[in-house]
Amino acid sequence: MPSNIVTPEFLQTLRNAEPVLWLRPGPGDCRVDAPADTGLTTDQIAAAQARFDRFTPLLAELFPELRDIGGMIESPLLRTPKMQAALGLPETQGRLWLKADHALPVAGSIKARGGIHEVLEFAESVALREGLIQSGDDYRKLATPAARACFARYQVAVGSTGNLGLSIGVMASALGFRAAVHMSADAKAWKKARLRARGVEVVEHSGDYERAVAAGRAQVQADPHGYFVDDERSASLFMGYAAAALHLRAQLDAAQIRVDAQHPLFVYLPCGVGGAPGGIAYGLRQVLGEHVHCFFAEPVQSPCFLVRMMAGHGQLPGLPAAPSVYDVGLHNRTEADGLAVPRASELAYGAVGGMLSGVYTVADQTLFDDLIRLHDTEGIRIEPSAAAGFAGPQHICLSSAGQSYLAGQGLLAQMPQSTHLVWTTGGLFVPDEEYARFLNRR
Hints:
Elements: H1 8-15, E1 21-23, H2 42-62, E2 77-79, H3 81-87, E3 95-100, H4 111-129, H5 145-151, E4 155-160, H6 163-175, E5 178-183, H7 189-197, E6 201-204, H8 209-221, E7 226-229, H9 235-242, H10 244-254, E8 265-270, H11 275-288, E9 292-299, H12 304-312, H13 346-352, E10 358-362, H14 364-378, H15 392-398, H16 400-408, E11 419-424, H17 432-439
Parallel strand pairs: 3-11, 4-5, 4-7, 5-6, 8-9, 8-11, 9-10
Antiparallel strand pairs: 1-10, 2-3
């Protein structure tokens, strides 16, 4: 039941774990909980990209798969007309493109952006403090035995449902850090096995994502040489994601895709705790401007950012200011393991809550249906959580609430010239037998 007005019927649909579309109230509506000042700046986006650039020679040396692309961690921008037809999205509503972060090298998901960036930032700070490098040096010095011996004194840890753990664990281990990933019960066995094969310590927890994060944070606090990557609070992660906007701008230019008042860009981002989609959305709005309309996509049982946005607008009276999905009667279990998060990041909410266009929810079976459609039409392999974005164009273009949003934004006449960009966030390293199980859900 899509709606931009939170009625009792909308709330019941949400609690019944049925798909909903929530649209941010317009400027005339009173905002109860304005996002806090996060201290984030546009200069940090450029700084994150500059850090990636400094490390490219080292990354090309550490990872054979990066040698032919000069150490860059980037993904292609793909036109997907067959998938567009399979989704029933007419070209009168614009064209469907895919930002293929499911194919990001090294970690195989969008988490390669933020996770690798934060490990690199920590490594750079240690290396400068320990005298391993100086400003302007070739960072390949950090692959020497002396540098690795220095890094081995430090532990890098993270709490994760899977993909962030892969990016942090693989990058930290490659540099020589002791790496530990605290994984929640819903993390996939193959992701744990991949980490252990890289020499990463995997600490399993019976609880959900929040408990894994809390356990990891507590363990690192007891280690004088420990460093915890905090997905709920990290500005470094956030800016690693935001830097993607700079390369996307160049890709859009190369594809002759304009983004302006006559050519709006709609972006659909799968959302877990909110750091990755929040960083991407923040970067896109800063780099490409106000004609970018970002929507988060969440499982029907794990809509943590949706309930945070609703609470921020006073639409969940009687609940905490920062509620969890449990507070609205949902159980937070989903096949989309990377999105199984009960409570949104306050950093992400503070940064993008005031600019996010909306949030919608997706049933698990729809994730599999769209994963299979993408396989059958375009020959592209992703994991279930990465398929969440594909329900977005239908919500916005083919529902009454979506049409009301477009009309309110003055966009109905611009839709034939619009671009719909689905951000596929993971799946490169899914084992064949696991992927076959996905396809068997048809």
